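Extended Data, panel c. Modelled sequence:
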Amino acid sequence: MKKIQRALISVWDKSGLDTFAKKLNECGVEIISSGELQNIYAIQD
């Protein structure tokens, strides 16, 4: 099975998304996003 390298995230309800994004990042997954998620993730990084 191939390892996931990138994830495109687009959601309406962003509750809990910071935790989810951090876990993906810890697993070495590159997160592709736009708008608010990009801003939220940059602040926490």
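The beta strands are 6-8, 30-32. This feature is highlighted in the accompanying rendering.
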